[in-house]
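C-alpha cells please, single chain.
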Amino acid sequence: MKIYYDGANLDEINEVTKLGIISGITTNLSSAKKIMINEKIDYDNFKDKIFNTVKAYNQKLSLSFQVSKNDPKSIYEEALNIHEKYKGLDLKVKVPINYENLEVINKLVKNGVKVNATCVTSFTQGVVAANIGCSYVSFFWGRMTDADIDAQKIVNNFRNLLDKKGLSKNVEILIGSLRDQGIISEAYIAGADIVTMGYKNIKKLAHHFKSEEANLGFQKEWNK
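Here you go.
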C-alpha cells in the first residue's frame, strides 16, 4: 500500500519526503507547466530540479516524468532521453495509453525503459498495458467516475486478473486523479498498489477529528 506525492512543488516535496510515508513522486504536464511559468524555466530545467531534489533526499524513491510530445516518433525520442539522462532513481516514464502509442511503448520496454502507462480509464487499456510490459498501470479514478464509470469495480477486476495470471510482481496498479479523500480508501480496497495524491490529501491522511478530540481529552486530564 504505497503512497506517492503527486505534484511538482519543491517545498512540498522536501516536506513530505521527510515524513517516512512517501514511496515515490509523480509529476504531470499540468503541474510541471505551473512551475515552469512561475520560475521561467523550460521542461528540461524543471526535470533537473525535481530529479536532483528527490535524488538528494532518497535514491530509493520512485519518480515518474511524463513525455510532453504527442506523436509516437517524438514520444520515443523524448522517453529514451529521459531514461538515459536521469539515472540513480527508480525512474518511470509516463506515456499516455492509446492505440497509436502501443508500438512505441513496446519499443521502449524492449529497450529497458520502465513505462508508466498513464491516462488509463478502462479495463481493456489496463490489460493492453500489462501485456506490453508496462511497470505501472495508472488508472485515472476521478475521470472515470466523472463519466459514470465504476472505477472501483474495474480496478478490482483488473487486480484479480493480475493475481490470477501471476503478473502482480511485474505490474503495479497506480491510482491518480483523486476527487476527494474517500477515494483513497476505496482505491486500496479495490486492490491498488499505489495511490498518488497531492499535498492537501497527504496532510489529511493521519488526521481525524475524533483522534484530536481524544488527544485533547488526555491532555486535559493530565494537566489537571
